[in-house]
Amino acid sequence: MRKTAVMLGLLALMVGLLCSCAFAEVTIRLASWGTSDFLVDAAREAVAPYGIKIEFEKISSSSYLDKVVSSTLGGVGPDVIADLPYRFSLLTAGIITDLTPYLEKDPEVNFKSFYPAIWGMYTYAGGTWILPSVISPYLIFYNKQHLNSAGLAAPNENWRWTVELPEAANKLKVVQSDGKVTRYGLLLENRLYTPIFSAGGDILNAENNRAVIDSPAVANILKVFQEWRLKDLIPPLGDHRRNFAAEFGSIQAVLGTFGFNSYTNTSYANPAVEWGIAPAPLGEAGRSLDENTWGYSISAFTKHPDEAWIVAKALASLKGSLLLRDGQLSPMIGKMDNSAVTAAMEMYRLSREEVLMAFQQVNYVRPSFRHIKGDEIKDIVNKAFSRIVNGGESVGTVLPAAQESINALLNED
Question: Among 47, 170, 298, 404, which one is most buried in terms of CB atoms within 10 A?
Fold first, then answer.
């Protein structure tokens, strides 16, 4: 009996040793500017059976890239890094690694796990450097009480940028006898790629080697917005979430689904506002939404690449209902299921039809452009658009100059 007990004890010890070797505890450091703590907690729970712990550092967006690069090159950087697919600073610095080998062999998360359109945004330079995690397609937000009082029907999928939208904006604008505007009918966000793409315009050509913003399609839609601004139909371009919540505007175009969270869970959320959502307006080329998505990369310097993949995979595989707490959607097939629809309805007081419509807008998202110097190009473009719409400068002067500056960047060695 004693011999049997000893043998059983030795067996238990051996099993324990084997288990401790198979699941040796590893800590994976995660860096992000916007991942919520509750999402990290969910990922921690998912990776715990693998003996993996997650150490999370939230870094200010203004210093994010500099800190990630400097800490990595200093030997103390993160293993998993949140990143944007249209930003290439970490790629050019050699900080992140190609995830293609993982996506080709992983039976749980692979290229077939996501909506096919996603890979147009997440592949570049012959590799896949970021694992898609969230997407937030752009929509119209509107104040239901304002539209009802004006006798206007809700915006719908047939609204156009240059017809129904300005017509409604004119009817909804409220001006005092002294000429002071107390409510704008339309608040135009500083997110002009969506209307420009829908108008048939673009930033770079298909080969990404020449600027094409000095085109009739881009010029015409910018002239429309400039005229709205000159007539005081809209206030200056900007982030108008606070203005919409304060009922200083009736329609907001365009804002991502992250706006759901803005109007319910922020310091300026106004429970008195009954808001609704509708698709972004149509242009001459139909409906085409600028990308608004991000995911997770693996550091090229990590000592635990396989464990880092498990963590990145867990973050990319979170339930759709969890992501909706931040107003984000999952680009992974099957995650935005009926439970996610129900969660969105309960959290944001949206109808089932509105929620389903928001989910369907993923089909209209397209990449902006891909270039190693993308940050510099975007800076030139955004400044040019602001000078035209907010500043009233000539389209015929600003766009050619911006295009020349972009092409000079593209032609640099």
Answer: 298
